[in-house]
Every structure is written in C-alpha cells, then in structure tokens.
C-alpha cells in the first residue's frame, strides 16, 4: 500500500488524534479512547496500492469502547460501639471499627479541637463536673482518602 495515500484516506469519528505504524497498518491513538462510545472508522477510496490503484470501495467498520470501570468504594464504615468511662476530671472514650472496608484511623473532634487517633481517646482536661463532647469519624487513606459517611458522638459529664 502507498502509506501516505492510505493515511490520508483514513478517518475516525468521533475524531481521534494519533499516529500510524506500518508492517500492517496500525493507528495508535495519542490518548485513551472515550469510554462507552461508538467509533466509526473509514478508509476512503483515495487509498492506493504501490501501483497507484485506488481502493475500489471504501472500507468501513465501527466499534464501541467498553464502559469506564467503576472505581472501588473506599469509604470506611461508621465507627460503632462508642463507650465512655469517667473519673473526677477525665473521660476515656473507646469505639470499634465498623464492618467492611479498611479503616486506617479516626478523626476525632473533642470539644471543638481535631485529633487523629486509633480507637481510644482520653480527655484528661475535662475538669470535675464538666462536659466532654466527642465526635468520631472513620478514615481510610486509600486514594485521596475518605471519611465515613456519618459519625458517632457522645456527650458525657466527668
């Protein structure tokens, strides 16, 4: 085949930029094709063999790309079983991981401050008779990182 004439007679719709390689003709897109899209490919009659003979009829085919993969869910489960133990001027909170996707740690809001924790938090600065307010979110560091969809919370007096 006359490579230049074949490349000039080639079209793909929707349009895709790419390059050709030859042993047999290959069109190599510059980027991934759009998922779940019908592509129509044509080699028009301007394509010639080495003797200068044109393709008698256009060669046309189409294909549809596969749907984009669904990313895995990396949202950790809501912590469960939030419990507390109190003393004269302290509160100790414990909780367990919910069932499901890995939980790498917890973001804890304690009296309007944020802390990164495992599954225990000791608030030793409550003061006798004062209240300790806690909110616990599960954290999964996979990908960009995700927090649980909701939280558990408790409000207890020392």
CATH class of the largest domain: Mainly Beta
Mean pLDDT: 91
Shape: rod-shaped
- Output the CATH homologous superfamily of the largest domain: Immunoglobulins
CATH topology of the largest domain: Immunoglobulin-like
- DSSP strand count: 13
Features:
158 residues; mainly beta; Immunoglobulin-like; 2 domains; three-stranded antiparallel sheet; 4% helix; 46% strand
Describe the structure.
This protein is mainly beta and 158 residues long. It folds into two domains: 3-64, Sandwich (Immunoglobulin-like); 80-157, Immunoglobulins (Immunoglobulin-like), CATH 2.60.40. Helices cover 4% and strands 46% of the residues. The chain has one helix spanning 3-9; strands spanning 10-13, 18-22, 25-29, 38-43, 59-64, 80-86, 91-96, 105-110, 113-117, 120-123, 131-140, 146-147, 152-157. The strands form four sheets. Strands 8, 9, 11, 12 and 13 form a five-stranded antiparallel beta sheet that branches. The relative contact order is 0.16.
Provide a quick synopsis of the model.
With 158 residues, the protein is mostly beta strands. It is built from 1 helix and 13 strands; from the N terminus they run H-E-E-E-E-E-E-E-E-E-E-E-E-E. The strands form 4 sheets. Strands 8, 9, 11, 12 and 13 form a 5-stranded antiparallel sheet that branches. Strands 1-4-5 form a 3-stranded antiparallel sheet. Strands 6-7-10 form a 3-stranded antiparallel sheet, with no helix packed on it.
List the helices and strands and how they pair.
Layout: H1 3-9, E1 10-13, E2 18-22, E3 25-29, E4 38-43, E5 59-64, E6 80-86, E7 91-96, E8 105-110, E9 113-117, E10 120-123, E11 131-140, E12 146-147, E13 152-157
């Amino acid at each position: 085949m006359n490579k230049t004439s074949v490349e000039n007679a080639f079209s793909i719709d929707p349009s895709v930029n790419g390059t050709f390689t030859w042993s047999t003709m290959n069109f190599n897109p510059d980027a991934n094709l759009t998922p779940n899209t019908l592509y129509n490919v044509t080699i028009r009659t301007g394509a010639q063999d080495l003797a200068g003979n044109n393709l008698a009829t256009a060669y046309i085919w189409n294909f549809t790309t596969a749907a984009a993969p669904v990313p895995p869910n990396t949202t950790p489960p809501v912590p469960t079983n939030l419990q507390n133990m109190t003393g004269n001027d302290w509160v100790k909170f414990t909780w367990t991981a919910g069932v499901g996707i890995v939980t790498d740690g917890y973001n804890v809001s304690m009296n309007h401050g944020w802390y990164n924790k495992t599954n225990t938090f000791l608030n030793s600065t409550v003061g006798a008779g004062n209240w300790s307010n806690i909110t616990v979110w599960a954290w999964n560091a996979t990908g960009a990182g995700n927090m649980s969809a909701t939280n558990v919370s408790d409000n207890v007096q020392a």
